[in-house]
Amino acid sequence: MTQQALAPMLPSFDPKHTELDSLNGTQKRALSYAGTIHRLFTLVLISKQPADRVLGQYFRENKKHGSKDRRIIRETLFGLFRWWGWGQQLLSKEIQAEANIWYSLLSSTALLEQHAWQDIRSAWQAFAALDSQLIHESEQLLTQGVSVTHKLKAFSSLTGVNEAKVDDLLPLWFWQHCKLDEAAKLPLIEAMSSRPPLWLRVQKHSRTAVIAELANTEITAEASEYFSDALSLGYQSINLNEVSLYKQGHLEVQDLGSQVIGQICQPKADEHWWDTCSGAGGKTLQLRSLMYQQANSSNGESGSITSSDIRSNALEELKKRAARAGFDGISIAKWNSDALPVEANAFDGVLVDAPCSCTGTWRRNPDMRWLDTASAIEDKPALQLDILTRSSKAVKAGGQLVYATCSLADAENQAVVNDFLANNSEFELLEIEHPFNGETTKMLTVWPQDANSDGMFVAKMVKR
Predict the structure, then answer these.
(1) 20 to 30 A Cα–Cα from 390, which one of 133, 344, 447, 452?
(2) DSSP string over 403-438
(3) Where in the chain is the domain with CATH 3.30.70?
(4) CA-CA-CA-CA torsion for 436, 438, 442, 448, nearest 10 degrees?
(5) Which class is 200-254 in CATH?
(6) Would you say 54 and 37 are in contact if contact means Cβ atoms under 8 Å apart?
(7) Tens of pLDDT along 155-204?
(8) pLDDT-derived band at 23, boundaries 50, 70, 90
């Protein structure tokens, strides 16, 4: 989409309308934040680059910002995208000064996110010329509850946008591809509209010891009830690069939903697995870590992981992470053509974590729901089926083939597996247990609301 096509949906902002000499220190900071966030928000929408990449580049180029500045800019930017399904409807309202729209967007985002910087919120509200009674009423509404239905009432009260609906928080094309019962919609929207916690995975170390060591550095970690090596740091703002356990390779960042994939694979200590689309190696490291856990209980370990990807830089990052963790038994086999980069019929297990629309990670990347179009889903199934079909040639008789995505769309998940099975009769589906509710299924979708995680899909097959 061109910049011209995007222009009608972009809020305008011109800070020159404000007499700087008449502002106090807080108001000047609020004005500066408003301008910076507007530039970043507009750049993301026009360039269609991920918001975290745009924000990271901005902070690298502007080192003057302290931790509070960075937090206000970061959380407001992501909050704007989280509530953009409602916020963009402000653009059609007739407001005398166009700059007021942007301040109204900032004010409503701060309200919905319940941001703590009240001084900046108050300055934005004043710049937006919002009625004090409306501000009070909208805040009172949130004392009655913080569900999306309560937040919709508060947003409408503050902004006067009465046409907004809860469903608007996800784009229309999402609902066309991810058809849910009405009863299931609201829990999904609730999850997608909340900040995700920081999930970690413990490697080659006792989780109990890790929690104790983190506590000694005033970092609170909570053990997952589902997996013995998973823990959550909640919503703490932590620079892991300064945490010793992370630098020593005993901790890896991995969402709980993503950890489901390795747990479904359950590689044994002496098995040989191929991670066909490894990226920077999150699943590879998890598989190898699970092998080490198996080895400790069986007094031996001779298995291995082969990792492949088309991106050299991702594979280089995998090597660094494996070295940091002290993991051996991991080899690299880059995809250089359509030909298999590994031997056929050679592996006990093959994991195909296929490229996808990533709709399951939208709560972590709320900008992507507005940057992508339906083509993000519609363009993928043919590629996914091709990768799955070619990768299956590496599974030996009796071996396992695991197909996974971080998508919530049937077209990328169940449909791909069914098409594969229709043309590869030597494979059959295995029953797997949902790790969060204990239900048995042959095709597992983990929804973000199931255990406060990203959304994931996984199916496990065996070669006869």
Answers:
(1) 447
(2) EEES---GGGTHHHHHHHHHH-TTEEE--EE-TTT-
(3) 200-254
(4) -20
(5) alpha beta
(6) no
(7) 999 999 999 999 999 999 999 998 888 889 999 999 999 999 999 999 99
(8) confident
Give the DSSP H or E segment for 197.
none
Taking each helix axis from N to C end, the angle separating 67-82 and 98-113, rounded to the nearest 10 degrees, works out to 100
- Amino acid (one-letter) located at 275: D
**Cα angle 31-33-34, degrees, rounded to a multiple of 5:** 65
Contacts for 432-441: CB closer than 8 Å, 24+ residues apart? 432/264, 432/458, 432/459, 432/460, 435/226, 435/227, 435/260, 435/263, 436/226
Tokens of 229: 């090596």
Q: In terms of C-beta density within 10 A (0-12 exposed, 13-18 middle, 19 or more buried), how is residue 304 classed?
A: buried
Contact 155, 164 (CB under 8 A): yes
Residue-wise pLDDT for 58-90, tens only, equals 999 999 999 899 999 999 999 999 999 999 999
Side-chain-side CA neighbours of residue 202 (13 Å):
23
**Interatomic CA distance for residues 256 and 267, integer angstroms:** 18
Topology of domain 255-463, CATH: Rossmann fold (3.40.50)
Question: Per the annotation, does 328 bind a ligand?
Answer: no
Domain with CATH 1.10.940 in the chain: 3-169
Catalytic residues: 406
Long-range contacts, 422-427 (Cβ 8 Å, 24+): 423/389, 424/389, 424/392, 426/463, 426/464, 427/392, 427/395, 427/401, 427/461, 427/462, 427/463, 427/464
- Does the pLDDT value for residue 234 go beyond 70? yes
Under the phi-then-psi rule, with left for phi > 0, alpha for psi from -120 to 50, and beta for the rest, what region is 66?
beta
Q: For the chain, where do the domains classified as CATH 3.40.50.150 start and end? A: 255-463
167 is in an annotated binding site: no
Class of domain 3-169: mainly alpha
Cβ atoms 276, 338 nearer than 8 A: no
CB 233 within 8 A of CB 198: yes
Q: Encode pLDDT of 381-438 as tens digits.
A: 999 999 999 999 999 999 999 999 999 999 999 999 999 999 999 999 999 999 999 9
416, with CB counted inside 10 A (0-12, 13-18, 19+), is buried
- C-alpha 356 chain-centroid distance: 13
Q: How far is residue 138's CA from residue 148's CA, in Å, rounded to a whole number?
A: 13
pLDDT of residue 439: 95
